[in-house]
Design goal:
The chain has two domains: 244 residues, 3-Layer(aba) Sandwich (Peroxisomal Thiolase, Chain A, domain 1); 151 residues, 3-Layer(aba) Sandwich (Peroxisomal Thiolase, Chain A, domain 1). Helices cover 33% and strands 20% of the residues. The chain contains 13 helices and 15 strands. Strands 5-4-6-7-1-8-15-14-9-10-12 form an eleven-stranded mixed sheet, with helices on both faces. It has a two-stranded antiparallel sheet with strand order 2-3. It has a two-stranded antiparallel sheet with strand order 11-13. β14 and β15 form a beta hairpin. The chain starts with a strand and ends with a strand.
Length: 413
């Protein structure tokens, strides 16, 4: 089997419009959660979110084309542009039939759907945009990336709610490992900060209502957590077959060595009791990686700040690793950027890779009173810390019982 390495990363998040800014602010413990500015929230019970600030896609892409793309795809293109530039790969002189694209998105073009549906109701069917369908369907994240850069390898979008971005990376890893591609552009994108989405998530009591203190609202694994913060963003990773990367002199951030995916088969929103699906996902990733569970020293948790997810993810980690839990440090990126749904697994994979490459862990914001199930677990919770990581996991868990774990290791190993 072929080995697969990470050679480029790109990101746009509520704390930064590029990787460096995002990473620096995460290390500083800065929150990107604030009062919503995109629309009037007067009649909504939740008025906070993680918005990308100052995003002007026309700075990099043709304005006419951007008007025909949902914000989700715009964010995806932005992150992909950075990732390809970061990888320093000359696509014009590569076999582009051997370069694929798999991008995850849980919802896709929700914003354009809301806008055009309003037109349909208020002005009639003739006023609906002819671009509605290609602007709305989630697969345009990967489809348009391939179109823009002329990439003709494996191409599709993964849709598994909050695990979509991680599933995309796992599938892209396998595509290279099994010889279906040499290079894969992969990740996740989501733009769900809309009135309709906010109403739906808040009515199911999934969102925090801590409107008066936005930066303190996302509290993963804290006993006072009251729901997640809906957010937008995107992250893209360039994966390459190791020998191809070495031959062209690529910089290697880390090696991806394992992918675990399981289903709960239990409930539409609640995780399986005791997080048994999440535990099996981690087990599978470690098994494919060919390492021992005792070699894992860092986990970027899914950590949504919801009652059941945090409880059962903590239980799953403790059940799998036993006494070794004491030697694993955990953190949760969502504590600062909120929950970007289909983009979350991709953003957190980027954070995991950077943590390995730079030997630093960002803190988990607002973890002041850990819930009882956290007893015996160690979190980076007060400030960024130096930490040498050889093997790490990144967990992603989604509505519908989708569980996904990515395993990375430091390169060279």
């Amino acid at each position: 089997m072929r080995r697969v390495v990470v050679t480029g990363i790109g990101a746009i998040t509520p704390v930064g419009n590029d990787v460096k800014t995002t990473w620096d602010r995460l290390l500083q413990g800065q929150s990107g959660i604030a009062l919503i500015s995109f629309f009037d929230t007067l009649n909504l019970p939740v008025r906070i979110a993680g918005e990308v600030k100052g995003f002007q896609p026309e700075e990099r892409f043709e304005p006419k084309t951007m008007k025909r793309l949902d914000r989700c795809v715009q964010l995806c293109l932005w992150a992909t542009h950075e990732a390809i530039a970061d990888a320093r790969i000359d696509l014009q002189h590569c076999d582009r039939t051997d370069i694929g694209v798999i991008i995850g998105s849980g919802i896709g073009g929700l914003g354009v759907w809301e806008r055009e549906h309003r037109k349909f109701i208020e002005q009639g069917p003739a006023r609906v945009s002819p671009f509605l369908i290609p602007m709305m369907i989630p697969d345009m994240t990967s489809g348009y990336v391939a179109i823009h850069w002329g990439l003709k390898g494996p191409n599709y979008t993964t849709i598994s709610a909050c695990a979509s971005g991680a599933h995309a990376i796992g599938d892209a890893f396998r595509a290279i490992k099994y010889g279906d591609a040499t290079v894969m552009i992969t990740g996740g994108a989501e733009a769900p900060v809309t009135p309709f989405a906010l109403a739906g998530f808040s009515n199911m009591r999934a969102l925090s209502r801590r409107n008066d203190e936005p930066s303190r609202a996302s509290r993963p694994f804290d006993i006072e957590r009251d729901g997640f913060i809906i957010s937008e963003g995107a992250a893209t990773i360039v994966l390459e077959e190791l020998e191809f990367a070495l031959k062209r002199g690529a910089r290697i951030y880390a090696e991806i060595i394992g992918f675990g995916a399981t289903g709960d088969g239990y409930h539409i929103t609640a995780p399986a009791p005791d997080g048994e699906g999440a535990r099996r996902s981690m087990e599978r990733a470690i098994r494919e990686a060919g390492c021992k569970k005792e070699q894992i020293t860092y986990i970027n948790t899914h950590g949504t700040s919801t009652e059941l997810n945090d409880k059962f993810e903590a239980i799953a980690i403790k059940q799998l690793f036993g006494e070794h839990c004491q030697k694993i440090v955990l953190n949760t990126t969502k504590s600062m950027i909120g929950h970007t749904l289909g983009a979350a697994g991709a953003i957190e994979a980027c954070v995991t890779v950077l943590s390995i490459q730079e030997g630093r862990l960002h803190p988990t914001l607002n973890l002041e009173n850990p819930m009882p199930e956290c007893s015996g677990l160690t979190f980076a919770s007060r400030a960024a810390q130096d930490y040498t990581i050889d093997y790490a996991l990144s967990n992603s868990l989604g509505f519908g019982g989708h569980n996904c774990t990515l395993c990375f290791r430091r390169y060279p190993s």
